Amino acid sequence: MSVKSIPKTHMLHHASQTRYRKRRNLFARLLTDRRSTRSLGGNIVLVLTLGLMASIFLFPVIFMVNNAFKPLIELLKFPPDIFVKNPTFENFQDLGELFANSLVPFSRYLFNTIFIVVAGTAGQIILASMAAYPLAKYDFPGRNLIFNLIVMSLMFSAAVTAVPTYIIVSKLKLTDTYLSIILPAFASTLGLYLMINFMEQVPSSLIESAAIDGANEINTLFSIVMPAVKPAWITLFILSFQNMWGVTGSTFIYDESLKTLSYALGQIATSGIARQGVMAAVSLIMFIIPTIIFIFMQSNVIETMTTSGMKE
Amino acid sequence: MDDKIHVNGRHSFRKNRNLYLMMLPFLVLFFTFTVLPVLTSIVFSFTDFNVLQFPHFIGFENYKRLFLDDTIFVTAVKNTFIIAVITGPIGYLLAFLMAWLINELPPKIRAVLTIIFYAPSISGNVYLIFTLIFSSDPHGYLNAKLLDWGIIDSAILWLQDTRYMLAIVILVSLWMSLGFGFLSFIAGLQTIDRTQYEAGEVDGISNRWQELWYITLPNMKPQLMFGAIMSITAALGAGDITAALTGFPSTNYATHTIVNHLTDYGSIRMEMGYASSIAVVLFAIMLLSNRLVQKFIRRVGT
Fold this sequence. Notes:
The structure holds two protein chains of two kinds.
Chain A: H1 2-31, H2 40-68, H3 72-75, H4 90-100, H5 106-137, H6 143-153, H7 158-171, H8 179-186, H9 189-199, H10 204-212, H11 217-228, H12 230-246, H13 261-270, H14 276-307
Helix pairs in contact in A: 2-14, 4-14, 5-8, 5-9, 5-12, 9-12, 10-11, 12-14, 13-14
Chain B: H1 17-44, H2 61-69, H3 71-103, H4 107-122, H5 129-133, H6 141-148, H7 162-175, H8 180-190, H9 195-202, H10 208-219, H11 221-236, H12 240-246, H13 258-268, H14 272-298
Helix pairs in contact in B: 1-14, 3-4, 3-7, 3-8, 3-11, 3-13, 7-12, 8-11, 11-14, 13-14
């Protein structure tokens, strides 16, 4: 009998719980369910606002994308059209020819960029998370000093540190190496600050229970904290990729065979008159690669966030 | 945010050894490539360093010159403040508003809108398309359209006429304001636990504005702080956009900003000492604005 009574009470308990949940949901739906409570007017305003904003933000981008496929006649047309009439790959072919005649092959520039992007982004995420975790979740001597230095460093203009940085890079004999670009990128405080902000929201109880199980700090970071702050490091990935992709490295790298693709593209687009078409093609390439990465990463964030809640 | 772990003791260096080791790689690079250059710049600001000759210590001479003799600097400060006061707060609110509005949409639509709003910030030079749109040439997009429609008789020098320059710079800055702060808002909104909203209903939260103020915003304080720093540094550090759109130097210095002034002395005239003093002043302005804004954000949701 006693064995039977346990599942019985359990069931009872379960039933009352679902009933309670149901009632609350109905209550919620009537009053504050986030989609259905907005009035029809509210919905119309929302759609109009978003539509208007989206078209304002998209307009220059559409203009740029179309320009890349315009033949020269359309590029110089008066008055100009946004949309291309006779799309052509002429501009890209011209760009290809210019690269075919360059001293350093296209593949070399591409390799340099890929290497810098991969190493720079991976290193930045790993170093920043390792530094962010203690700063976000622990109290130790020197914590506030380091944290304040990091926040302050975000506000110092990069334009003026260029010369001291150059002196340091050359003193360390890093000029004409990939490291001259990668190492300073590793120390980006923006990424670190972002990671700290998100890690602060991970409940301490989650981390302490891992500590009871005997995990050390670095294990806890990679097995518990990092999965919980996935949106943060994916955002950091996007930021880092964008920065590294756009890096020209012209101040530290003189060897043409070590220069990046964005440097080469920039040079080709600006060195020469009547290269409007090539320039439009270059703009599109510079834009489209980070965009593809962004779309790919962003869909990843949204997928994981709908299935897992992070907070207590 | 006060949810910190003290297991290792807050006063012991030795017990926290693991934590220091974790931070070490970053901190070494941070001191080498950030702290050292910044400190060097601050020291330079008290010298007459010009890259070629050995610097001499000249005390506050650079700062005196900056505030008393340099009328262009005064113009630059004025322009920077105008740009910052408009684009900073509006850009920040816009970024949050947009993130908030699209957060409740179905995931697919949300993803598409995120990309659209972030697109202007994706590649460093998408905004150069505005030089074509606002080109002073009759073939420039806006001029051509306005001429075609008969609204104007002759091409307007959008980027050279002091009446329009600042407004256009502000417009383009706003167009680019849904940047990295916006992304962090979106990521922050997605990490808020849904059960908090349900609990809020029980506690008597009855409309979306209360929900925003008492649940959403307090949960996003770290991202709000982050976004604020992004907005402050972007707004007060405006310079690339002005130089790219209106030229350098701009007509009558109508869009000359502190950063433009800094680049002028630091990269063109090579008066590094003087340029450094400009950077230090800008640094001080940013720190002060940040302090004010953080104070304000701390009050959110209370």
